[in-house]
């Protein structure tokens, strides 16, 4: 019986081959005639050249192949909420139960809606959306990234924590480290016993230390408590509370300190504080610490308008240790345009319009 089945199986294709070929030939012939009857006439070559319109693109001839232009402007849709976004995982190996608990090992990675977490090993529970990371852990979202030895996150980054993190704020070219990181919301990060600096690791001249440091990506600001500014690891200033921007947008806050050393002043450090009064007005507070002279208070006010611009600045040193006297100075500079409108000519510029400059200083 088994021998017969094998023989039948071998002979059946030989018996049917001629019949199948005839039937397929007839079907293909009918399909070709039908396609030719329905095919549209070929389009003439386009005379449109590059630059004939704002969105024109010259596409090379590819015969009868239709080429579609990829353009981000053609994409339609609203941003996807974290809770509705897809989750992507990758690793060298994976085990566990799908939709229950998975263990990713070796270059493990999970991505969702712009948030990326990486580690040597990740245990992920889709039901709770919690990922436990172990070994070379990394979390990044937008221009903010954190690295540490161990972490626990919700993949959508609405809450989580990391031990001994190193962080980087690329918008502000800032970095630092902390004892612990706590993610309170998707945009608020709180550090315990943190450092903050805009120096590179190779040239770490100055940095801040703080008991707590809160970074708000939505508000683009940083708030710290018990801040100590250090210059070459030497504490030189204490601030119980401070705020600073974390982006290039104009807002009030501490700017990067300017530090140096010379034989006249000794260690010389200025920590500017920027006050954003208005789009065309700002104030710069300039507290300055000089090792051999004392503490100097300074300020610079800048203004800008269509008809005028300028600045007013001053410094006050209550007691100069070298001279034994109080020292102060001020400087006022202004540029004024005297146009036809200012001269009562109804806003019509005149040949007699002129520009004046003023510079008054006292030391």
What does this protein look like?
With 363 residues, the chain is mainly β. The protein has a domain at 128-362. 10% of the residues lie in helices and 50% in strands. The protein has 1 helix and 24 strands. The protein has one helix at residues 2-38; strands spanning 88-90, 93-97, 101-112, 115-125, 130-141, 144-154, 160-163, 166-169, 174-177, 180-183, 188-196, 206-216, 221-231, 234-245, 253-254, 258-262, 266-270, 273-278, 281-285, 288-290, 294-304, 308-317, 327-338, 354-362. The strands form 2 sheets. Strands 1, 2, 3, 4, 5, 6, 7, 8, 9, 10, 11, 12, 13 and 14 form a 14-stranded antiparallel beta sheet that branches. Strands 15, 16, 17, 18, 19, 20, 21, 22, 23 and 24 form a 10-stranded antiparallel beta sheet that branches. The N and C termini lie far apart (118 Å).
């Amino acid at each position: 019986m088994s021998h017969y089945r094998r023989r039948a199986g071998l002979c059946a294709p030989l018996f049917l081959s001629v019949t199948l070929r005839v039937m397929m030939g007839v079907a293909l012939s009918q399909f070709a005639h039908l396609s030719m009857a329905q095919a549209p006439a070929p389009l003439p070559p386009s005379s449109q050249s590059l630059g004939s319109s704002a969105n024109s693109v010259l596409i090379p001839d590819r015969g009868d192949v239709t080429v579609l232009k990829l353009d981000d402007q053609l994409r339609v849709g609203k941003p996807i909420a974290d809770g509705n976004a897809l989750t992507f995982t990758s690793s060298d190996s994976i085990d566990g139960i799908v939709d229950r608990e998975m263990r990713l090992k070796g270059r493990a990675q999970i991505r969702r809606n712009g948030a990326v977490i990486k580690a040597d090993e990740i245990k992920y529970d889709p039901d709770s959306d919690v990922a436990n990371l172990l070994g070379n852990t990394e979390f990044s979202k937008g221009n903010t990234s954190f690295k540490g030895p161990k972490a626990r996150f919700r993949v959508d980054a609405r809450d989580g924590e990391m031990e001994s993190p190193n962080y980087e704020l690329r918008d502000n070219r800032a970095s630092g480290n902390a004892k612990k990181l706590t993610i309170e919301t998707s945009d608020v990060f709180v550090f315990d016993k943190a450092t903050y600096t805009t120096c590179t690791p190779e040239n770490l001249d100055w940095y801040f230390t703080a008991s707590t440091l809160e970074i708000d990506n939505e508000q683009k600001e940083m708030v710290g408590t018990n801040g100590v500014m250090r210059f070459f690891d030497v504490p030189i200033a204490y601030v119980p509370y401070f705020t600073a921007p974390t982006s290039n947008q104009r807002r009030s806050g501490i700017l990067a300190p300017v530090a140096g050393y010379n034989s006249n002043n000794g260690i010389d450090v200025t920590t500017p504080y920027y006050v954003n009064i208005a789009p065309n007005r700002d104030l710069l507070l300039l507290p300055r610490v000089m090792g051999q002279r004392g503490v100097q208070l300074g300020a610079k006010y800048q203004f800008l308008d269509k008809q005028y611009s300028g600045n007013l600045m001053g410094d006050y040193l209550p007691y100069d240790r070298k001279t034994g006297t109080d020292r102060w100075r001020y400087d006022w500079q202004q540029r004024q345009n005297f146009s036809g409108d200012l001269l009562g000519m109804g806003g019509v510029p005149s040949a007699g319009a002129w520009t004046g400059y003023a510079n008054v200083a006292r030391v």
